[in-house]
Task: structure prediction
Amino acid sequence: MNSKHPETLALHAGWRRDSATNSVAVPIYQTTSYQFDSAEHAANLFGLKELGNIYTRIMNPTCDAFEKRLAALEGGVAALALASGQAASAMTVQNLARVGDNIVTSTDLYGGTWNLFANTLKDQGIEARFVDPSDPEAFARATDDRTRAYYAETLPNPKLVPFPIAEVAKIGRSFGVPLIMDNTAAPLLVRPLDHGAAVVMYSTTKYIGGHGTSIGGAVIDGGNFDWEAHASHQPAMNTPDPSYHGAVWSQAAKPLGPIAYILKLRVTLLRDLGAAMAPFNAFLFLQGLETLPLRMREHSKNTLAVANFLAERKDVKRVIHPAYHSGVGAERTAKYLPHGQGGLCGFEIAGGVEAGRRFIDALQMFYHVANIGDARSLAIHPASTTHSQLTESEQAATGVTPGYIRLSIGLEHIDDILGDLSQALDAAKG
Ligand code: PLP
Result:
């Protein structure tokens, strides 16, 4: 499929028909294992002399179709489906960093990723150095010769300021440090690999699935980072791996293409940690991908209409949406999100915590859930839920004020979305 258009790739990339049945839809290959053709075939597969199905923990044809389609949409060379976004975040880092190493990460992260980096990876001997993404040079200042990766989210909530991908990727490349981007909130709206990122990860749970049915994650290898050229900064890719007969991944992958990063991730970390995506979920994510270009356009359109509506309300103190930033935030929106700003919008309701609670309780159509990226509209009041364990100043540091409401705008008719928001705002006045 040589189209460059996401609408076409979402329907055709990575799959034409089932070789056994001619099925057009990707079948759910609900199998654990695969019959080898011969002893030699089996040995070749295990020895990575040829790529093929061995065992569903490591690869599966339904997952494979999903991985190929996602890699094509993202402009990458190969992808790996995983059990959740959390598994993807952890493994993107563990693939490069070992005990005593560090990563430099943006402070503006999903709370689960923050915990993973600040606590679990720390316990595993990997230090996460948190820096403010408003200053790209902060990444350079935090880098030393044990820095193995940079990490950031494209469109982190609650602040919803696009991350300076090109600026930080360039700094990283000067040190031999690849940038890993969590693009969960902005699939198709931004392709981080086009801006110099080396690796992209997703919680496919959100927009890629799109219907709030399945937990999943994915990693996409840009194939655009020269691991060999940075041997001293990237020892995991350039020193013999005792878990695979001393394979040096930057070398071993060469006959298969520029896929050293994702090959190592699949055949070592996925093999050992086992967070595989189930074939049934890969099928559902393929369904999601088919309409992703359409949905991202509609999410963006409805969400901008919501932001404009909220900006007119006297009981709304502030609107947080990529199109409503000024200064550097506005420049980043213009650079990274010119064709649509995504489905997330925040606002600060007059009347603080109590008004926030009343607003949430008055919603009739919006669901009150801790998720984003569903086809349905969702709302949450972080100060009384996700962030309630933090002090008010800690909340403020993350961008959450007492009256802050996060909306994930769905695909309902805009009149119904605005109608529900309007009546809930009226009810919140108390
Ligand atoms: N990254 C971002 C930006 C998220 O919003 C989430 C989940 O909310 C995750 C990662 C984790 O993904 P999952 O819930 O699929 O493990």
Residues 84-86, 89, 110, 112-113, 153, 182, 184-185, 203, 205, 215, 217 surround pyridoxal-5'-phosphate (CB under 6 Å). The CA atoms of residues 254 and 344 lie 41 Å apart.
